[in-house]
Write a structure and sequence with these properties.
Shape: globular
Structural class: alpha/beta
Bound molecules: 5'-O-[(S)-ethoxy(hydroxy)phosphoryl]adenosine
Largest sheet: 8 strands, mixed
Helix content: 25-40%
Strand content: 15-25%
Number of helices: 18
Oligomer: single chain
Radius of gyration: 24 Å
Number of strands: 31
Distance between the termini: 57 Å
Length: about 625
């Protein structure tokens, strides 16, 4: 099996890029024709960034699961589709061939229908990293239901917010999840969440950990029992979808308000994840691709499920964490399953670096051909450690820049095809037209420049809307600069024309590769009864990339500060999830505010970073003295 649109040399990249800019419609039409469609599209592309309206392959009819499953069952029924490695290395791994995965998806799609699911319904998935999670996702797509996967680390409150926003009618979950030496009670989180979610009719519960759960009459049912009921039924046929019908919603944090539901559609997303998977990683038939992300994040959607499976690849799913039972776990998995492609986050690399070389000793990593990183800027030290110790200077590293909103990779080198440069994502993929703009919205041209990163032309995988609130999509992404999609990232273009992402320019933090809005964390902290006000900023953290620094005003003096900190952290964990717990909480008597009441975050950011001078002009502050107090008590 080869991919006719796989770029194999720098010259081919240049030709493809040029064509994608000069003639985008015929470029994408040719690529899209490699997939299985029931009816061809009426138009390749309709767009304007003002509304915004973006339609790719409109009128085309397809089902993404036929492209991920049926197509491959015909060609390679016994090829492994999913290899699964359990949290506990002593538990047996599992392999599902394309034929088996197709069958399970077809059966579970019948289960969903039996439980009332219909095309267009929204279904919330809150599950551990087990093959049934991928089966659940694909079964939704099979029947045209819109999946909304929520990461298993989010709190009941967060799950509830997401279910309510999308008005889901079904939840698919498990009794619990194994993560390292912990067992996380997923079902009881769902029970708590559903108190405030009247739209939910059914909860389907997979048995994974065997922990005790409470099953509500009528509402709750076991996955295993439901599967038995459909064991002899014909497999569920694929629902015919329009290319622009919704495929999924995925919630992500922004600089203001609650997380928004990023909307992706069937056709463009399929083409984009497939095209980027095949080209960025230079996937060759038969290789084992190991993406270490959780399917609760976009990286898992695009590069564990849809990209690899639409390419007939073997995708490895890992239930556990890199440091349990020891820091050699990734390397054991690579050796055991002869992994060729490893795709992980800089934060994972940095945390493993901290264990030194011992965990790598004696591990056979010789099958590795391509390494990838995603989620945050990679510092040069981590890049070189990865290159020297894991790739043995023999595997190209792709530094892939993209976002939940972009559906798949936008800027990255292509493994072994275009050159890598430490800490640079390097060049845009064909179809991607990046521009840098200054604070006035003027394009900064030429090389050796920096600015805010925008994209000026649509690509097939881009978001179409934010669920239930299209205006929010417009104001968040398309109104800062006219006719441009604004990414929220700062970026520089060096003298070679290579792009380096420098990090968010808005109030979004990137903590261990997870996007967290400062406003969200502040809202959570402020829910604690002892808190009057708070301000949250990010600061450099050696392993997490960014840490969360919270300045908090209490409503009365508390003598036991340590206890108060724990309480506040607990509140944040309850409201958002443990991933958003502040690393540092400093109690202050006031916050630096302008006369109009605006918190001067710039100053707070500098103090959190340990700067004591150069705080800028503080004379416009309501109470300049407060800066001194905060500085003197910095943690
Ligand atoms: C950051 C994750 C530098 C960036 C796929 C972006 C990166 C945000 C890189 C999106 C990279 C992602 N280099 N920064 N290679 N990849 N980012 O939505 O700030 O969880 O805006 O998507 O992560 O995070 P999200």
């Amino acid at each position: 099996m080869s991919y006719p649109y796989q770029i194999r040399s720098f010259e081919e990249y240049q030709v493809a890029y040029k064509k994608s800019v000069e003639n985008p419609e015929s470029f994408w039409e040719e690529i899209a024709s490699n997939f299985k469609w029931h009816k061809k599209w009426d138009a390749v592309l309709n767009w304007n960034f003002n509304e915004p309206k973006v339609e790719w392959f409109k009128g085309g009819q397809l089902n993404i699961t036929e492209n991920c499953l049926d197509r491959w069952v015909e060609i390679q029924p016994n090829a492994p589709a999913i290899i699964w490695e359990a949290n506990n290395p002593d538990e047996k791994d599992r392999t599902l061939t394309y034929k088996e995965l197709h069958q399970q998806v077809g059966q579970f799609a019948n289960v969903l229908k039996n439980n009332g699911a219909r095309k267009g319904d929204r279904i919330c998935i809150y599950m551990p990293m087990v093959p049934e999670l991928a089966i659940a996702v694909l079964a939704c797509a099979r029947i045209g239901a819109i999946h909304s996967v929520v990461f298993g680390g989010f709190s009941a409150q967060s799950v509830s917010d997401r279910i309510q926003d999308a008005q889901c009618n079904i939840v698919i979950t498990a009794d619990g999840a194994f993560r390292g030496n912990k067992t996380i009670p997923l079902k009881s989180v769902i029970d708590e969440a559903l108190i405030t979610c009247p739209s939910i009719q059914k909860v389907i519960v997979l048995s994974r950990t065997g922990i005790a759960v409470s099953m509500m009459n009528e509402r709750d049912t076991w996955w295993e029992d439901e599967m038995k009921k459909v064991a002899d039924a014909p497999l569920c046929p694929a629902e015919i979808m329009d290319a622009e019908d919704m495929l999924f919603i995925l919630y992500t944090s922004g600089s203001t308000g609650k997380p928004k539901g990023v909307v992706h559609t069937c056709g463009g997303y399929m083409v984009w994840t497939n095209y980027t998977f095949v080209n960025v990683f230079q996937y060759q038939s038969g290789q084992v691709h190991f993406c270490t992300a959780d399917i609760g994040w976009v990286t898992g959607h695009s590069y564990i499920i849809y990209g690899p499976l639409s390419a007939g690849a073997t995708t490895l799913m890992f239930e556990g964490i890199p440091t349990w039972p020891n820091a050699g776990r990734f390397w054991d998995i690579i050796e055991k399953h002869k992994v060729e492609i490893l795709y992980t986050a800089p934060t994972a690399i940095r945390s493993l670096m901290a264990f030194g070389k011992d965990p790598i000793e004696g591990k056979d990593l010789s099958t590795l051909k391509v390494l990838g990183t995603v989620g945050e800027p990679i510092n040069e030290e981590a890049w070189h450690w990865y290159d020297d110790n894991i790739g043995k200077n023999n595997s190209p590293i792709v530094d892939t820049w993209w976002q939940t909103e972009t559906g798949g990779v936008l800027i990255s080198n292509l493994a072994g095809v275009t050159k890598a440069k430490p800490s640079f994502a390097t060049l845009p993929l064909p179809g991607v037209q990046p521009v840098l703009v200054d604070e006035n919205g003027n394009e900064v041209s030429g090389n050796n420049v920096s600015g805010n990163l925008c994209i000026k032309f649509p690509w097939p995988g881009m978001l179409r809307s934010t669920y239930g609130d299209h205006e929010r999509c417009r104001t968040t992404y398309f109104s800062t600069y006219k006719n441009l999609y604004f990414t929220g990232d700062g970026c520089l273009r060096d003298s070679d024309g290579d792009y380096r992402i420098t990090g968010r320019v808005d109030d979004v933090l990137n903590v261990s590769g997870h996007r967290i809005g400062t406003a969200e964390v502040e809202n959570a902290i402020n829910m604690h009864s002892g808190v009057v006000e708070s301000a949250v900023v990010g600061y450099h953290h050696d392993i997490k990339g960014q840490g969360i620094y919270a300045y908090v005003i209490l409503n009365s003096m508390h003598t036991d500060e340590a206890h108060m900190r724990q309480d506040i952290s607990q509140t944040v964990a309850k409201v958002i999830g443990a991933i958003a717990k502040p690393d540092k909480i400093q109690f202050v008597s006031g916050l630096p505010k302008t006369r109009s009441g605006k918190i001067m975050r710039r100053i707070l950011r500098k103090i959190a970073e340990g700067e004591t001078s150069n705080l800028g002009d503080t004379t416009t502050l309501l109470d300049p003295l407060i800066v001194e107090e905060i500085k003197n008590n910095k943690l």
